[in-house]
Design goal:
- By secondary structure, the protein is α/β, with parallel strands linked by helices.
- It folds into five domains: about 30 residues; about 120 residues, no CATH class; about 200 residues; about 140 residues, Rossmann fold; about 110 residues, NAD(P)-binding Rossmann-like Domain (Rossmann fold), CATH 3.40.50.
- Helices cover about 55% and strands about 10% of the residues.
- The strands form five sheets. A six-stranded mixed beta sheet has the order 14-13-12-15-16-17.
- β6, α16 and β7 form a beta-alpha-beta unit.
- α4 crosses α7 and α10 runs antiparallel to α11.
């Protein structure tokens, strides 16, 4: 029997062809279908379900503040929001800044539990953005926001925090844009004033050779005391010498001019040799003694004062005058230098005792005169330098105030941001702000009443006297900037209600040392704080730290919670985290001086490694630029001695920094677009804590083979 033959291949592929294939391969098709169904069932049964949380945001109106006339205007939603307004809100919702704020508030470990502490804040923010959907329906004012997560509870938590942070960001952009611009402008003006004061202060110090009032008057006060003491001793010695002179008989047989004429042999043609009168010998001896005294004093003055000091110059002039007199006597009586017996204390001349006494008396009188002249000069110089030193101190205080104002403006561009949320809940608030213009912004833009003063014991007493004490005292990144931290904490004790709570956030010293963050050490920070140190200071003022949180901000921070030590409120019972933090810092070595010594060596090593990398890059013909003219970058390049021979330029987003120079090293600063013009081989990220964000924003650098470099904690070229 013949096997069935396939249909003849003529014409196009038809239904019979399909049936033939299905019939011929039916078992293969059936088997593969079964495997596909089995695989789908396995995936379905084993997959984690995704839970979605949805929010709908209705925009009724938007308040905006115009930059020109600072008047509020309202965009209504009566006929639908303009597209640009809706698009702005979507941009806010999809912004990296908003996701970073949500990630920080919720916590990296909660968002990415599988990371086991290895993920960064940027990773958590990226996860939020990846699972977020934002959309609008054309023609209405509703924005749909949806977040997906395998954990149902976490999906809800993240959505709630997301909406909360969105409202804050919305207010920041729409209500306070002009205010932030104004404060930014004021900060720049304050910076210019500060720089001018620093310039004047440096000039005054350079011209006068004085650095402070203490330096100006300290050495002179010490010298005046010593000179007075020496003068009193010299006067007592003078009285003794005068008494001795009275007890000696006046020698006779002197020539009318006080000198004897030596005998001349008869018939000799030699001129008679004029003998040296005793009075001249005594005068010569006194000159030798006073010159020796002045030479000794010159050495003492040179040790205490800088070259060119008028006291040194006066002493040298006196030395010169006495030396001139001595030479004049020698010219008149050469025997003074050729006959050693004349000035010898062991001379057998009967008049030797009298001559010696006369010489000594004259020398003492000369010393008394020298001391007197020196005291007059010290008094005159003291008055002059006191005036200069006082002027320097005034300028130093002016600089400190202007520096504090500038720091306040820089740190408080977000002033009122925190308190506005309490105010929105109907909770009475009060800000304490040393910069009047910033306090004005907080009041006018956000309705936050403010006391324009530095906070401390005095201010706290004034507030309490007017009935203002607090249930909650809080401040972020404030404590490191306080010159007198004990006065500041003492004020907290006074201003806090009996059952009140204090919460402060500050950069953590352990993280600074552990991660080699030496570039965060700069002039506006008076303190670098550990939990142990803060706990002791608070305890000294009768305050107890009852809780602590570790935060990722500023390279690693602590948020502490404190109460009155005598408080018995249940909500402020000391948590286990307090003891855990004590142990963590102790185990790390924050109570051991060796930790700080080794940190110094680690810093030096980092400096050498950075310079080695930059030098080798330059010698290889590579170009290197910097990103970020922040304070930590300024500290880094100045400490390491990095100038424009190693780094061509630095870029920064802030228009207030562009077209200026990095302080101290004179590296020019441009806008970020400069990098795309010059296409450097390496971009050194100075704010290393933002390396992921910056390398992400500037990803195009990799298109021409450029690479990113971070200097901290170790010099590293990023992949």
């Amino acid at each position: 029997m013949k096997k069935s033959e396939p249909p003849s291949a003529k014409g196009t592929f038809g239904v019979q062809d399909v049936l033939y294939i299905l019939f011929k391969h039916k078992w293969k098709i059936l088997l593969l279908s079964l495997l596909g169904f089995a695989g789908s069932a396995a995936v379905y049964l084993n997959r984690k379900p995704l839970y979605q949380t949805e929010a709908k945001l209705l925009l009724k109106y938007v308040l905006v503040r115009e930059n020109v006339d600072t008047s509020l205007s309202q965009i209504n939603a009566g006929g639908g929001m303009p597209d640009y307004v809706m698009n702005t809100e979507i941009e806010i919702l999809k912004s990296v800044d908003l996701s970073l704020a949500v990630a920080e508030a919720v916590g990296i470990e909660r968002i990415l539990p599988e990371s086991k502490g290895q993920a960064s804040l940027a990773d958590a923010a990226g996860t939020i953005l990846a699972n977020l959907e934002v959309g609008i329906v054309p023609g209405n004012n509703v924005i749909h926001v949806m977040y997906s997560n395998a954990d149902k509870a976490m999906s809800t938590v993240i959505m709630k925090e997301f909406i909360k942070q969105y409202f804050a960001k919305h207010l920041e952009i729409h209500r306070s844009a002009a205010a932030f611009d104004m404060v930014s402008k004021q900060a720049e003006e304050a910076r210019i004033r500060l720089k001018e004061t620093e310039r004047q202060l440096d000039k005054l110090k350079t011209d006068s050779g004085i650095t402070s009032l203490a330096e100006a008057t300290g050495a002179l006060s010490s010298q005046r005391s010593k000179t007075l003491e020496d003068l009193m001793k010299a006067k007592a010695e003078l009285a003794e010498a005068e008494a001795r002179m009275k007890s000696l008989d006046q020698p006779s047989g002197l020539a009318p001019d006080g000198g004897k004429v030596a005998a001349v042999e008869p018939g000799s043609e030699a001129e008679p040799v004029r003998q040296v009168p005793p009075q001249i010998v005594a005068e010569y001896k006194s000159m030798l003694e006073i010159v020796a005294f002045l030479q000794k004093r010159d050495l003492e003055l040179r040790i205490k004062f800088k070259p060119g000091n008028r006291l040194i110059m006066l002493n040298q002039q006196q030395m010169s005058d006495n030396e001139a007199k001595r030479r004049a006597l020698v010219a008149r009586y050469p025997q003074l230098t050729t006959d050693a017996s004349l000035v010898s204390k062991d001379s057998t001349d009967p008049q030797s005792g009298l001559m010696e006494a006369q010489a000594h008396l004259a020398a003492i009188k000369a010393r008394v005169d020298v001391y007197g002249e020196h005291l007059d000069e010290i008094k005159k110089q003291f008055n002059e330098q006191y005036a200069i030193g006082a002027e320097i101190d005034v300028m130093e205080r002016k600089k400190q105030m202007e520096d504090a104002e500038y720091r306040s403006l820089e740190l408080n561009l977000k002033n009122g941001y925190l308190l506005q949320h309490f105010k929105g809940k109907g909770i009475p608030v009060l800000g304490v702000e040393p910069a009047a213009n910033v306090a004005k912004v907080a009041w006018e833009e956000k309705g936050i009443p403010s006391v324009v003063k530095f906070f401390g014991v005095e201010t706290a007493n004034e507030l309490v006297a007017t009935g203002k004490s607090a249930d909650l005292l809080m401040g972020n990144n404030v404590m490191a900037h306080v010159p007198d931290i004990n006065d500041f904490i003492g004020g907290l004790k006074i201003a806090l209600k009996p059952e009140g709570v204090i919460t402060f956030e500050f950069p953590h010293l352990q993280r600074l040392i552990d991660e080699n963050q030496f570039d965060t050490v700069y002039h506006e920070h008076f303190s670098y704080l550990s939990f142990l140190a803060v706990e002791k200071m608070f305890a000294h003022h009768g305050l107890t730290l009852f809780d602590v949180e570790q935060l990722p901000t500023h390279g690693g921070s602590l948020r502490i919670f404190a109460r009155h030590t005598e408080s018995t409120a249940e909500k402020t019972v000391v948590t286990d985290r307090v003891e855990a933090m004590r142990k963590q810092e102790t185990d790390f070595g924050l109570t051991d001086m060796e930790t700080y010594t080794s940190f110094g060596e680690k810093v030096k090593s980092t400096k050498r490694k950075l310079l080695k990398f930059l030098i080798e890059a330059k010698e290889a013909g590579k170009s290197v630029v910097g990103y970020g003219a922040a304070a930590k970058g300024v500290t880094l390049v100045n400490y390491c001695g990095v100038r424009d021979d190693l780094v061509d330029y630095v870029v920064d987003k802030s228009p207030y920094k562009q077209d200026h120079f990095m302080p101290g090293v004179r590296i020019p600063i441009y806008g970020p677009e400069k990098i795309f013009e010059t296409k450097p081989d390496y971009v050194l990220i100075l704010p290393w804590n933002l390396k992921k964000e910056i390398s992400g924003e500037m990803a195009k650098v990799r298109e021409w083979g450029g690479r990113f470099v971070v200097p901290i904690p170790e010099v590293q070229v990023l992949d």
